[in-house]
Amino acid sequence: MTLERINRLQLQIKPGQYFYVTDLINIRYLTGFTGSNAALLVSDSNAILATDSRYEIQAATQVPELPAVIGRNFPELLLSKLQKSEVLVEGANLSIDVYQKLVTSFEHQFSSSVGVIEALRVVKDDSEIELIMQACEISTKAYQDVIESVRVGQTEKFIRNALEHRMREYGADDIAFASIVASGPNSAIPHHEPTDRELQSGDFLKIDFGAKVDGYHADCTRTAVVGKPSDWQAELHSAVTSAQEAGRNTIQSGIQFTEVEKAVNQSLTDSGYREHFTHGLGHGVGLAIHEDPFFGRVEAAKIAPNTVITIEPGAYLKDKGGVRVEDTIVVNSEGYLNLTNLPYELLEL
């Protein structure tokens, strides 16, 4: 795995050129090293890892294929002994101050290279898909347990804590992100932070959640109602669910991302809720909870097989309530596999 991923990067590096990698997620992807302080230098034929003494044994254990240098000043360790060269850096991961120090400290020609490794991460291998599947299974199992025990009077924070505790009980290494539990009018806030608000009869309950397994994430959202839904709640939930289904039904390898967006937007337009859909349709999922590809940023790009993405339309009515329906799916030759395959019916709690 380690050499294969580095080799894929090396195919994009010219002779005499170096890639100075500082993003820890990209380092983990390329090498398997999980320490919190590292840099990686890759040429067209070699690679070397730098970390500090806290992680010397860990580096030797996790990345036995690569030589490692130990110290604190990673640019000095990795760049000082090179002949004057072109060095690519991850511009999105370096502050202006750090970049200027590199330029003034070394005679190399530095240039920013954005998205090169992130593009390699888009298409998942079998081991990555397996870990995401495990994270999704833990997530949905925990949700089904917790949602059955939800009662009037419980707070958003209580439900969040119960869900995150259950995900860990089922084997999650961590939560994928801070869970969103939004009740009543709070459900109209797309990324609401849970509060001490108590659940009331007639509330929407929107929960956005996910587990993390060996660095890989899950992402899922469902919206339920406390008691019987009112007409507007049933209509809103049906509109969003239908839009999400329209998007999923469009998914196949080779289709443009924009075609999926068109299907979702047309469905919401037909139901009269398009103006209430105020965020992106979805994103890639992997070692980061939000990673390439992002709907709305890739324009004419086509969806490749083994891409893991979310489909998450929503509609939000200020001061009333909102609905989001989200799944993590993996695109395959037959269309897609839904990894968070929870029921879509409006659950009455």
UniProtKB/TrEMBL annotation:
Residues 18-123 form the Creatinase N-terminal domain. Keywords: Hydrolase, Metal-binding. Pfam families: Creatinase_N, Peptidase_M24. InterPro entries: Creatin/AminoP/Spt16_N, Creatinase/aminopeptidase-like, Creatinase_N, Pept_M24, Pept_M24_MAP, Peptidase_M24B, Peptidase_M24B_aminopep-P_CS. The keyword Disulfide bond does not apply. Residues 130-332 form the Peptidase M24 domain. GO terms for molecular function: hydrolase activity; metal ion binding. The keyword Ribonucleoprotein does not apply. This is Unannotated protein.
